[in-house]
Amino acid sequence: MTDWYLEYFLMTYLCVSFLTYYIIPDYNDIINDFLSKLSSFGTIVAFPYVDDIDNDNNNNNNNSNNSNDDKVEEKKEKKEVKFEDKYKEEFAKISSEQLPFTTEELESISKKTLEFIKKYNDHLDKEINDVKSMLEDDSDNDNNDNNKEKLEELLEEKALPYEDTYLKAEEEAKKEVLNDRLKKLKKCYVFEKTPLGNVAMCYNFDKDSFEYYSDNTLPYRFLEPVGRKYVLTFKCKHIFIDMDEELKEAELRADKKRLEEEDKAKKEKESGVKKRNVFAKLKEYNSATSSGAKGASVGAKTNNIKMPANIKANLKDINSEPEKLLLKEKSNHYTCQGKFANMRVLQSVNRKLVDKKYAMSFADFKKMSLKK
After folding, report:
1. Upper half-sphere CA count for residue 195 (Cβ side, 13 Å)
2. Are residues 111 and 178 in the same domain?
3. How does DSSP classify residue 85?
């Protein structure tokens, strides 16, 4: 019985070893291909949308990568903007119209309009009375005629409708209120970091200039972006002069002037009239020719001083192309008020407006004490 089991075990061992070392290695690739196909068929049956999901994930990843690339490019473009061109796009977008009036400003306009009308009428009545008194006192005929004409003009002006007078007075009142608004900008500051240091800037209406504080000396090209930021912050574009537009206008004026000069020269050429030169061209005389001696020539030829090369080169460029020098009629003004240590952050308070007793005179104080 034991011999049979032993024989069976030996036979199975030999069969397994034979299959393992001789037959299975030859069919290993075939078996692996079959198993992979079987597994892929099972996944397709169980999950038919796996490929679509993978494609969507790939597309999403690509889109996210593209969006990240776009953001990186936008950041690069923003970084590449020069400081001199800062706030130009925002400045071009905003309107140059002034902000609407507040309720307090409208009340002030109505009060000032009535005040202006009263002052205007009083002044007009005074002038009419003065002219009438001059007509009564003066006996000269010529003066009487002039005074009569002036009196007629004044009476016509007084006879104008009230609406016309009110509209003129209202315009003056609005101008005054807007000027008061601009005067308040002296207490409004903006801060900006420039390539040469920090800047604090405000606007002085009385001087029509942007005042700034900085620890370093700043060129004009760095102050222009700060001025643009100021008018963008406080909505007062009309006080800032766009230098790009001013340069365009200067170019147009230069082209117009050049065309006028060309037309003028053409007309003179056609008419045959030459304009006489005011400056006479003097002849150069040599002392050797006049005296017979071999002496040095008189005039500029005896000057051996030479101009430096760098100055000469600059003068050559200016003299060769003078039409490229454009003159701007208007420009923004900037005034340095000193360093940041000179800047007064806290504004002084007028105690006379806060405390009425502070503005009291000694006579008023005495009257008040007597009443008590």
Report:
1. 10
2. yes
3. G
Tokens of 301: 């030829």
Identify whether 201 is part of a domain.
yes
**227 and 208 housed in the same domain:** yes
- Percent of the chain past pLDDT 90, that is, above it, reads 24
Q: DSSP string of 270-295?
A: HHTPPPPPSS--PPP--HHHHHSS--
Most confident segment among 114-128, 143-157, 202-216: 202-216
Quick check: helix, strand or coil at residue 192?
strand
Residues 29 and 146 in one domain: no
In a domain, 107, yes or no: yes
Instruction: Quote the CA–CA distance of 46 and 51 in Å, as a whole number.
Output: 12
DSSP output for 206-237: TTTEEEEE-SS---HHHHHHHHHHHHHHHT-G
To the nearest whole number, what is the mean pLDDT of the chain? 75
The amino acid sitting at 283 is K
In 3-state terms, what secondary structure has residue 48? coil
pLDDT digits (tens, 9 = 90+) for 65-124: 666 666 555 555 555 778 988 998 898 888 888 888 889 999 999 999 999 999 888 888
Residues 204 and 337 in one domain: yes
User: How is residue 339 written in tokens?
Assistant: 């360093």
User: Are 171 and 216 in the same domain?
Assistant: no
Q: What is the pLDDT of residues 291-313, one digit of tens each?
A: 444 444 444 444 455 556 655 55
Q: Is-contact 243 223, C-beta < 8 A?
A: no
Q: Cβ(164)–Cβ(179) under 8 Å?
A: no
For 140, the domain range is 103-183
**219 and 341 together in one domain:** yes
Instruction: Count Cβ neighbours within 10 Å for each residue of 318-349 and write b for 16 or more, e otherwise.
Output: eeeeeeeeeeeeeebebeeeeeeeeeeeeeee
Cross-strand partners of 203: 210
Same domain as 17, residue 121: no
pTM above 0.70, yes or no: no
Where are any strands of DSSP class E within the chain? 190-194, 197-204, 209-213, 334-336
The sheet carrying 190-194 orders its strands as 190-194, 197-204, 209-213, 334-336
The number of folded domains in the chain is: 3
